[in-house]
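Re: that chain you flagged

S.,

Sorry for the slow reply, it's been a week of failed gels. I finally had a moment to sit down with the sequence you sent. For the record, here it is as I used it:
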Amino acid sequence: MTPRETEWDSGLEGERLASRVVDALDRQLALFRRLDLLSRRQREIVSDGDTDGLLGVLGERQDVIEQLERLGEQLRPVRRGWDSMLERLPINRRAEVRERLDALAELAAAIASRDEADRCVLEERRGAIAGEVNTLGRARGAAGAYAAPEPAATPRFQDVEG
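Prediction finished late last night. Pasting the structure tokens below so you have them in one place:
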């Protein structure tokens, strides 16, 4: 067991455990809310077709995701023994924990839904651009087929001495 795992399991009971779990879930909620705001901004940027703005938002989202991953590592021992941990919480605090978990699930679902919709829009645009490029290539080929042949080059050198 790692020091971080024993930190959660070493005699924390009741209110102390509840406070620590609620604090961790609050930090996770704050990060998910930030991710939700970025997801909403991403939706606007995708709608506007702003590629540079999209890259900026994706960079910000990556920072938030990395913070969530670090926090997830800290919470891994709690998730592993979730049922036993809930039993060690005071009954009146269990509802508080469940509310936060429900809020996290709701935010995660909303973000995933928007991301999927954005992915579909970007896929459609990519397909449309590929079609335009293909059409442009065929149009150039057709125009080249009907173009007048280039005049034969006139000789630049003459054999004057014979």
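What I noticed first: The chain has one domain: 3-143.

Talk soon,
D.
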